[in-house]
Structure formats: structure tokens, C-alpha cells
Amino acid sequence: MTDVNVLLRDAGLRPTRQRVSLAELLFCKGNRHVSAELVHEEAVAANVPVSLATVYNTLHQFTEAGLLREVAIEGTKTYFDTNTTDHHHLYIEDENRVIDIPGNVMNVADMPEIPDDMELVRVEVVVRVRHKKETACQ
Amino acid sequence: MTDVNVLLRDAGLRPTRQRVSLAELLFCKGNRHVSAELVHEEAVAANVPVSLATVYNTLHQFTEAGLLREVAIEGTKTYFDTNTTDHHHLYIEDENRVIDIPGNVMNVADMPEIPDDMELVRVEVVVRVRHKKETACQ
DNA sequence: TACAAAATGAGAATGGTTATTAACTGAATG
DNA sequence: CATTCAGTTAATAACCATTCTCATTTTGTA
Q1: What would the pLDDT profile of B13-61 be if each residue is shown by its tens digit?
Q2: Which of A103, A122, B4, B46 could be a cystine partner for A87, CB 3.0 to 4.6 Å?
Q3: Any A CB within 8 A of B126 CB
Q4: A130·B119 Cβ contact <8 A
Q5: Can you tell me the distance from the alpha carbon of A51 to that of A36, in angstroms, rounded to the nearest whole number?
């Protein structure tokens, strides 16, 4: 039960009411790709009235602590991924939907050289697909 | 000289003053990753007074016509890539800078299956790097 | 030149995100 | 158990990139 508390403490974050609630909401539902707005709505719906500002703060704090990862695939909105393990994304353009691809499925070969004074952070792959268009004629 | 005019006509776009100017600005300087604001500034600096609204319209029209490609790597701003050939990106986090990686350099293996009713649009790879932190001690 | 359709520009409107600041809480201390 | 205070939160204002609106201008064609 205090799992979330420990999680937060280990991340150097005080387990406040709001942070605990948001963490439960985020991490107890499997891997997800969420926007701040969605998290806020879900929190309110779950009778955890949190301000939108706090949702933003918390999401960024969680990201800095390595509990979340920011994903930029499309558009101007920011999404957060609760899956911080090595993986990639399948993006369905016409549905605006993102699906995880486990990291061990795909392989990236022939990486370019990285200068000595730099270090690799991560390799992100987005496989973009869309539904085939109806071929009305023929 | 009429290269840009032909380019625009072939894309189904009338070669208006603004579109011609912006096209020259975008495509005669090698491959670039630009924001609407930057294009607007450059246009004004080049004595081609274009409104910001027109810059946005034009960038989207060019994108639809396949002359540009939208790239979403980081942050809330939209960037457009003048390189529409097959290639990937190297992103230097601490400089907020994007560099092209030619498409034939890297290879992505073991792609996941794509359902029959869907088609692959593109595979985007972002190699994220950062400068090594100064190790003040030791 | 005249005309209809397309394009443009100025500024208002929108929407997501960040900043501000006063009130509140958690947890350590006496 | 009360006190204290750094850390946290909430309401709302500010911000910024982008989109919308629509009157005006330009373009291609006759």
C-alpha cells in the first residue's frame, strides 16, 4: 500500500496527498501516454481535486525523477509516457494513437559515431503508419 | 531562375510574391530545421515583408505539397525540415540543436508486423546525445 | 481593362503551458 | 501536542505559439 510513498521518497519527493494520488493514477493502470489535461480530468473524476498547475508541476517533477518520460511525436501538446524502459513507438497517424513497441523487438544498426565529449542519451524510434485509403475506383 | 516558380506550380501552388520569396529563402540554403518565427524574421530581414499568418499558411501548404516535413523532437514549437529525403536526426539536448543523419547510414532491423489494413508511412529515428558533464571531482 | 477566384495581412481569438504569489501542509523539533 | 518553516499547492494572470476572421489585395484569365 505504501508502494507509492516509497517510490516518491526514493525519488526525493515528499509524498503529499496530491503527488500520491497522481502517482497512483499514473502508475497503477499499465503503460500509458497521457497529457496534463487528461491527468487532470481523471484526477477530478476520481474525487481528487488537484489544480491544473499542480498537475503540470508534478508531471515535470516525475519526469525529472525518471518516473516519466516526455514524448514528442506529433503536434504542440506535450505527452508523458509512464513506460521509462527501453522501447519505441508505433504511431497511427489517422487515429492520433501511440502504441509501445518493446525495446527488444527492434534493432537500430550502424549508429553514427558520437564525439568523445558527448554521450548517448537514448535512441528513439517512431514507426509511423496509417490506415490504407479506400480505393473507391477499381 | 524560374526554378522556384516551377517547383511551386508543380506542387499546385500559385507562385505568388510571398510564396516565391519564402521558397527561395527555405530551399536555397541547404538543409535546415526552421520555425515559423525564424522564417518570418529572415523574410523581414531580407526586405520581404510577409505577415506571420502567411508564413504559417505557406509552411503548411509546402508541407502538404511534400516540399517540407514537420519534425517533432522537443518542446512546444513546431519545426519544419527542408530535407524531405529519407534521413534521421541527431539531437544535441543541451544545445537544442538538430543535425541530419543520412538515411543510408543507419538501419532499423526487425520492424514489427503492420496489419494488412495499414501502410507504413515512415520510420523516424532520433539519436539523443548530450555533452558529458564536467566531473569536477577526481 | 474587367472580373472571379485565390491569397494576404492585421489583429483578435484560442489553447496549452508557465509564472506569480498568498495560503496551506508535512514533518521535524521542543 | 504546539510551533515552526521549508516545501507544496491553488487560483489566476501572464505568456507564447498557433489558428481564425474577414476586409483588402493580388493573380490568372478573358
Answers
A1: 999 999 999 999 999 998 999 999 999 999 999 999 999 999 999 999 9
A2: A103
A3: yes
A4: yes
A5: 11
